[in-house]
């Protein structure tokens, strides 16, 4: 099965199937107009022992392949690691016809994609996501590393040539990472597709998600992401909806220190927060308690950790990339399936922060 991503001047496909990792050579033939002069695979220290060999076995013997493994975890999205990857790429003699393969979760996809965007002003790259979260991050071409002063602050738009999503690789994913990724799945329903949200609500009662639903779940979730980024590649409009829950979510991640909660777990607390602000702002009823019951049954926290200083969270929220001239802009829900971006008064934010 494939999901098309119809970005202007750069259409590509997301391949979704079991066992794709064994078929890289054949897949590259399909996806690339011009065959690669060499291949540069970037992966991490958790994924490499699990899947790298399978991927290498699927490549033809006469292809020049270099593999680089970075430490797993968010701290690898750094300048230091970025420079290291560029050094290895130069040493390997990559040229403009080379193709970079990102084999891993969002961390590998983001940093390897940024290498692809900047090495010799840009070379082609392929995403091979290995986490549930990466159903989101591997599609749409946002690539970045972190600056000590802010997450994802240094980056580019670089669309991949294709995405190969071998869902068999999710079998080894820890439950916490399922929770992180599933948040970005139902977020897609909440902002744009009520029917998808209801379907998830009905079928997903536990994590990891039952195998029988995975194909449909991923195809629908990725199709929503693909539609958003093809209408608005550079985030001038609806792409901003993807940030639902992220204004507070990112603040929680940065104030609590990355790693305490996963990204998706922090985003869910941010979604509940955004729902509360939405109810006040639009004078509407979003049935927040039903949402909270569902996600808590899946193991998510919905309250802001009590040890986090509320005024520090507010300060962190003001540093968000969506901030314009100091005022906080948030993605809100008019109803389930319909999002909008609004400027929100600091006093309201602080009072809900103190409540949650
Ligand atoms: P991650 O890449 O750190 O992966 C999570 C953990 O799972 C890591 O320890 C990793 O080694 C391990 N892992 C990966 N695949 C595995 C597998 N198949 N089996 C067992 N373990 C496996 O994190 P993530 O959640 O995939 O991605 C988070 C990153 O994605 C963040 O840096 C975030 O900023 C970024 N992101 C980017 C976008 C975008 O549009 N570019 C969107 C959302 C998130
Ligand atoms: Zn996210």
TrEMBL record:
The chain crosses the membrane at residues 99-120. It catalyses: 7-phospho-2-dehydro-3-deoxy-D-arabino-heptonate = 3-dehydroquinate + phosphate. Its main location: cytoplasm. This is 3-dehydroquinate synthase. It is found in: Cytoplasm. Zn(2+) binds at residues 184, 246, 263. It is an enzyme of class 4 (lyase). NCBIfam families: aroB. Residues 181-323 form the 3-dehydroquinate synthase C-terminal domain. InterPro entries: Dehydroquinate_synthase (IPR050071), DHQ_synth_AroB (IPR016037), DHQ_synth_fam (IPR030963), DHQS/DOIS_N (IPR030960), DHQS_C (IPR056179). It comes from Alkalicoccobacillus gibsonii. CDD domains: DHQS. Binds 1 divalent metal cation per subunit. Can use either Co(2+) or Zn(2+).
């Amino acid at each position: 099965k494939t999901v098309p991503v119809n970005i202007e001047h750069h259409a590509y496909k997301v391949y979704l199937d079991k066992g794709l990792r064994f078929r890289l050579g054949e897949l590259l033939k399909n996806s690339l107009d011009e065959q690669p002069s060499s291949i540069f695979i970037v992966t991490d220290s958790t994924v490499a022992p699990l899947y790298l060999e399978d991927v290498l076995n699927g490549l033809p013997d006469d292809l020049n392949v270099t593999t680089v493994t970075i430490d797993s975890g968010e701290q690898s999205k750094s300048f230091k690691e970025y420079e290291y990857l560029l050094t290895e790429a130069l040493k390997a003699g990559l040229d403009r016809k080379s193709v970079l393969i990102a084999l891993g979760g969002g961390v590998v996809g983001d940093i390897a994609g940024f290498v692809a965007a900047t090495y010799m002003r840009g070379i082609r790259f392929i995403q091979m996501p290995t986490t549930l979260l990466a159903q989101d991050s591997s599609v749409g071409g946002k690539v970045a590393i972190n600056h000590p002063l802010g997450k994802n602050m240094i980056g580019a738009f670089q669309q991949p040539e294709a995405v190969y999503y071998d869902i068999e690789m999710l079998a080894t994913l820890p439950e916490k990472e399922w929770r992180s990724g599933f948040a970005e799945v139902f977020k897609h329903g909440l902002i744009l597709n009520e029917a998808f949200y209801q379907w998830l609500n009905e079928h997903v009662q536990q994590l990891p998600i039952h195998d029988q639903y995975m194909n449909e779940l991923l195809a629908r979730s990725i199709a929503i992401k693909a539609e958003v980024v093809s209408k608005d590649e550079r985030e001038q409009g609806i792409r901003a909806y993807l940030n639902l829950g992220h204004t507070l979510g990112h603040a929680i991640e940065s104030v609590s220190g990355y790693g305490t909660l996963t990204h998706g777990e922090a985003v869910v607390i941010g979604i509940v927060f955004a729902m509360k602000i939405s109810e006040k702002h639009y004078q509407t009823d979003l049935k927040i308690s039903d949402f909270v019951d569902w996600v808590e049954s899946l193991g998510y926290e919905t309250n802001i950790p009590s040890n986090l200083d509320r005024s520090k969270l507010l300060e962190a929220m003001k540093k968000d990339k969506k901030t314009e001239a100091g005022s906080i802009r948030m993605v809100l829900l008019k109803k389930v399936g319909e999002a909008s971006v609004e400027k929100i008064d600091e006093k309201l934010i602080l009072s809900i922060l103190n409540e949650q």
